[in-house]
């Protein structure tokens, strides 16, 4: 049976979808970029392919995801409880709803503070998180999808528990002809207001918030909260 990380790229192929284009354009427009929770490194690899010649660094706490990345990228194992960059990047991004893996206020603050330290003055942190108001997780058990893997169609479907606080527990079932995986996961659905207040606590200000990948303003019931945060200048910088 394959590991979950071995299936990730086939399950989440780069598609040139609106979110892929949104982040790739941002990365191509920045000289130095930190990809927070870079997973299998696809965004940075696409930026290199598209001609980015500046500094591109990614990190992820899941070594099995990093192991699936193409060779030649600058990828580091860990998270911002241990890794540290100081005043080095014009842009930080956190894509693929990776921000929702931060389950507690302490995790969120550690990450936001680490990103703030890593950004140069004027730098931006851009990421998305699903809006709890849209209650998207309630739709997941009704659907499912298939993807091709090693010559066969593999099926994915979700079992989802009712939300407790702002955390949703789920099981991702991946079913092939000769094997089946059931991976438990947890995702936090932070409200736009709580997000802004945690950002402020970490020294970051919300400078833009979109509800769609074509940059329409965030509305109360938007599916996504796509946030652009700016680091407040630190004393002594
Ligand atoms: C759904 S994947 C997204 C990966 C990649 N950003 C993408 O768009 O394909 C979520 C990623 O967040 C990572 N992650 C979990 N906790 C994290 C943390 N505290 N800091 C950074 N990344 C984290 C996971 O290991 C995983 O690779």
TrEMBL record:
Domain spans labelled Methyltransferase: 33-123
Record keywords: Methyltransferase, Transferase
Molecular function in Gene Ontology: methyltransferase activity
GO biological process per UniProt: methylation
UniProt xrefs under SUPFAM superfamilies: S-adenosyl-L-methionine-dependent methyltransferases
Key word Transmembrane helix present: no
Cross-referenced Gene3D superfamilies: Vaccinia Virus protein VP39
Any Pfam family the entry gives: Methyltransf_25
Name assigned to this protein: Class I SAM-dependent methyltransferase
């Amino acid at each position: 049976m394959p590991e979950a990380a071995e299936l990730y790229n086939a399950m989440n192929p780069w598609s040139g979808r609106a979110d892929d284009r949104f982040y790739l354009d941002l990365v191509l427009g920045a000289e130095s970029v930190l990809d927070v929770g870079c997973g299998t490194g696809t965004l940075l690899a696409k930026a290199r392919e598209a001609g980015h010649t500046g500094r591109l660094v990614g990190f992820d706490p899941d070594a099995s995801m990093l192991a699936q990345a193409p060779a030649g990228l600058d990828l580091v194992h860990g998270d911002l409880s241990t890794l540290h960059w100081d005043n080095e990047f014009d842009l930080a991004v956190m894509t693929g709803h990776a921000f929702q893996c931060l389950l507690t206020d302490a995790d969120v603050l550690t990450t936001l503070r680490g990103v703030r330290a890593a950004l140069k003055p004027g730098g931006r942190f851009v990421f998305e998180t699903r809006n709890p108001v849209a209650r998207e997780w309630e739709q997941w058990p009704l659907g499912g999808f298939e993807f091709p893997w090693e010559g066969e169609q593999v099926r994915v479907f979700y079992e989802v528990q009712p939300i407790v606080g702002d955390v949703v527990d789920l099981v991702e079932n991946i079913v092939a002809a000769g094997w089946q995986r059931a991976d438990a996961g947890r995702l936090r659905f932070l409200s736009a207001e709580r997000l802004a207040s945690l950002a402020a606590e970490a020294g970051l200000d919300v400078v833009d918030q979109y509800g769609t990948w074509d940059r329409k303003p965030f509305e109360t019931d938007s599916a996504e909260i796509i946030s652009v945060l700016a680091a407040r200048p630190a004393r002594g910088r």
